[in-house]
Amino acid sequence: MISRRALMLGGACLFVTEGALSSSFERSYVLGSTLLEDIVSDLTAGRAKTRLLISGSACPGHTDVKASDLVFAANAQGIYVHPRQMTLPSLTQLFAAKEQLRTRTHAIAISGSWLIPDVQIQASRAVAKTLVQGETSDFSNAVYGRLQKRLERIQAFSDGLTPVRARFHGKPVVSALMQKDFVSWCGFSVAATFGGAESMNPKTLGQTIALARKHRAIGVVENLQSGQEAGLPIAEELKIPRAILSNFPGSDDNVPDYFSLVRENIKQLLLLTGN
User: In 30, 39, 242, 263, which residue has its Cα 20 to 30 A from 101's Cα atom?
Assistant: First the structure.
């Protein structure tokens, strides 16, 4: 149970000081995805300046760093990325241009789908822990106060999804590999998975269709950032509906943050059940 007044972290009881996040506390951060941007913006009450390396509709594994990103990063308090982004040529080039940026770069190593509330809680805690490194006590207390509110909201949000997850429970689907964890958390039984369209050859397509038919799959779940066509042949062959989910906020105007993104994904999944 999360305390309403204080958040225990590392044995320290830290209280909310919202005034520390006033406009006089300017911070700037470079962010490797909209998932990270959403957390940082929330924990800093939207007052931090941020530079996003990739849009919400694209795959973070294809990050391109521009010259303007380097200029912004030179004065940023931190660079937040996913571990797989650390070896991308674009980031290694950034480090080569300014080696000291490496010491301000944080790879947030949280496994699993960040759409799952428990995983989102872990990610939020990890980001908060790095945000306060070397910061003033006022700023740190304010960030942890915002974190507390975020965690409580995530937990309440998760509890509110229990009824719809019960409706999904045990229903078989075919899922894009990048959505498997979230779809399983929602309650579906994943009969088979598939990768991007480039990995779908006649043999793998046939095997996937056979598994879907065997388990009487009711629908196909696509991953927006991997392309929207990989599962189309499966859906057409079996004459079952498709749902297109996104892993990242900002992939559309109606999903600006974590909560709206999950709600929209649930709405898409309901289409598979005829609701």
Answer: 39
Q: How many domains does the chain have?
A: 2
Kindly report, residue by residue over 218-265, the tens digit of the pLDDT. 999 999 988 888 999 999 999 999 999 999 999 999 999 999 999 999
Mean pLDDT of the region 117-142 = 95
Can you give the pLDDT at residue 232? 95
Residue 176 lies in a domain: yes
Give pTM, 2 decimals: 0.87
Please determine, for residue 72, whether its predicted confidence score (pLDDT) is greater than 90.
no
Domain boundary among 95, 125, 160: 160
**For position 89, what pLDDT does the model report?**
77
Residues contacting 23, CB < 8 A, separation 6+: 47
Domain range holding 250? 162-273
Asked if residue 143 and residue 80 are part of one domain, the reply reads yes
